[in-house]
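Supplementary Note 2. Why include the ligand at all?

Several targets in our set were suspected to adopt different conformations when bound, so apo predictions alone were not considered sufficient. For every target with a known small-molecule partner we therefore ran a joint prediction. The input for adenosine-5'-diphosphate is given below.
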Amino acid sequence: VMASMAHLQKEKLRLQEELLELQEKLAAQENNELSLSLQLQGQVETLKEKLLEQAQEINRLRSELGGTDAEKHRDLLAAENERLRQEMKACEGELQELRELQRQQQAPCRDCPHLQENAGLQEQLSQLQREAEETRAKLVELDLEVQQKTNRLAEVELRLKDSLAERAEEEERLSRRLRDSQETIASLKSQPQQIKYIIKTVEVESAKAKQALCETQSRNQYLQEQVGMQKQVLKEMEQQLQRSQKTEAQLRAQIMMYESELERAHGQMLEEMQAMEEEKNRAIEEAFSRAQVEMKAVHENLAGVRTNLLTLQPALRTLTHDYNNLKRQVRDFPQLLQETLRSARAEISQAIEEVHSTNRELLRKYRRELQLRKKCHNELVRLKGNIRVFGRVRPITKEDGEGPEAANAVTFDADDDAVLYLLHKGKQVSFELDKVFPPQASQEEVFQEVQALVTSCIDGYNVCIFAYGQTGAGKTYTMEGTAANPGINQRALQLLFSEVRGKAADWDYTITVSAAEIYNEALRDLLGKEPQEKLEIKLCPDGSGQLYVPGLTELRVQSVEDINKVFEFGHIKRVTECTNLNEHSSRSHALLIVTVRGLDRSTGLRTTGKLNLVDLAGSERVGRSGAEGSRLREAQHINKSLSALGDVIYALRSRQGHVPFRNSKLTYLLQDSLSGDSKTLMMVQVSPAEKNTSETLCSLKFAERVRSVELGPVSRKAELGSWPSQEHLEGDSPGSAAPPGRGHASPSPGQLSSRSASIRRKLQTSG
Ligand code: ADP
Ligand code: ADP
Ligand code: MG
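The joint prediction is reproduced in token form.
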């Protein structure tokens, strides 16, 4: 028994050792599992890193995937992704619930380290799954890992089964032994008490072993339960895994779909891009063709322009050439100009010099010519006669009355304007003067004949113009005229003014006028302050032999207005008396003395010309006027002075050595203007009226007497030589009706009779 007891003890110890061994094995297994989980954790870490990298890669790719349409697609995908994520989150929630359930299931075996490990693993797994869901690319790997883990779990199970089998064997063995032992015990029972006791102790001891066995068995059962539970959990987990794989597959399919969509979108995009590219190409082509056409046009233009340019180039060249030439010329111009100016100046000065000399020469010639002209003029005037006698017949006026007394007694020769016929006492007497103005002759016409005389006054000649005739014959009319129809006085002055103005360039002229009258042989100043004062005619004290009248007013006139004033002034002072012959009969001689003084600025030559315009007193005979007393004395004075004038003119024309200027105040005063180169015009005024014929006859006789001696020295001599015989031949027939003849110098026999008639007339008048 003891031995068996010892053996049992030993057995028990061995069993204990085996238990310990088993426990150790379990611990080792647990350790193994821990290391496995650690390894898994490390793998999870690496996976996480890779995931991060992938995410980064995706981000990078996303950032790379630019473009408008692609971006839109990307955004759409992102939205879809978000939606999927949310779905995944929902899945996660479900998973969480499942896990919660699991945890509740696991709660009873919380103390088991395997379970804890499993829970941790599951958590990691869920994490992995979550991450795997987020990252479709790494799911396969995760799958693989899961597969590995399942494999390992299977291994663990296998091992667990092995250990269970071993334990079953052990139990079998133990139960066999127990049976053996029981048999032994039964055999022993039949043996003594001691043995019984031993058996009992052994039995007790075996009970203890039995209890331990029971415990071990219960524990084993528990473990088995655990393993079963584990298996269930694993199954669930596998299911979950399957589900998640399914979801993953779904997700993958979705992803694939998205990818395909993306691809499609990409394709579309590409297509669009291609279309756009094509369009672009087309547009480019179009633009190109258009541009080519335009280019062609431009080329053509260019060609035109080029040809233009080609044609323009020579022009430009010539232009530039011209321009350069011009520039050069312009540059040289000042010098050239100066040179030209210098030469021009020299030329000009030379020309001026030449002109000067020519001028001097011309001046010399001009002076010579002037002298010559003067000489010629003098000669001409001398030939023509310095003294000319004109006749003027006034028209019949109202004053002449009516009836036979007012009949016209004067007729004219149509062919000869120097002849007039007077019907006197039934006989026609012819008179020949230098010119005869008929009644219709105008003031203008009369002045036309006079104006040459007036002009010569400017040249420095003295001129006398007398109006002679009976009162009322038109003396005043001829000399002064009317306001509307001015006479010689005003016209002469006007002419002088205009002539002087015309010569103003070379000459300085001053024109002065004096007005005087001689009444009863007394000279009176008509412009003076004291008109009653009698003026004396005196010789110039300078010994020049010139006469002058001290105290005679001389007024400078410059315009027609001035002259008019002078005339007006003179008129007021003029003494006029009424006779029974004519209301306006003037009994005094009226003189207008115009002095023209000239200075030739270029030569310094001085000239002085005097124009004496004399309105003589009436020439009617005293007996006829019926005057008495003072009137008679007046008439006598007038007759005396008029005959003295006739004498002087006669003496002058016949070039007698002695001219009786002193016989009257008038001739004495006009001595300068009657002698020498002076020119005298006697305007004999006659009335055509029948009643005036005797006075007319007297006036015409006077005129002819004055005129008839106008002859050159030779002819004059000849005439003078033949004077006595002519006188003798035709002594008693005055005013014969013989035709007038004027050719004095011609000795032709045809003209001899006319000359003898002229001489006859002369003899009559002088006689
Ligand atoms: P006188 O001065 O000789 O005495 P007037 O000159 O006073 O004469 O003339 C007398 C009148 O005759 C005036 O009324 C004048 O107007 C007029 N008379 C003189 N001559 C002419 C003429 N040629 N034409 C017109 N009327 C004239
Ligand atoms: P004077 O000037 O010297 O005083 P005038 O010439 O007046 O002299 O002459 C005086 C007078 O003598 C005048 O009446 C004039 O007619 C007259 N007489 C002078 N010389 C002659 C002459 N040669 N023949 C005629 N009469 C003369
Ligand atoms: Mg009169």
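Residues 658, 660, 662 surround adenosine-5'-diphosphate (ligand 2) (CB under 6 Å). The first strand starts at residue 387 and ends at 393. Comparable summaries for the other entries are listed in the accompanying table.
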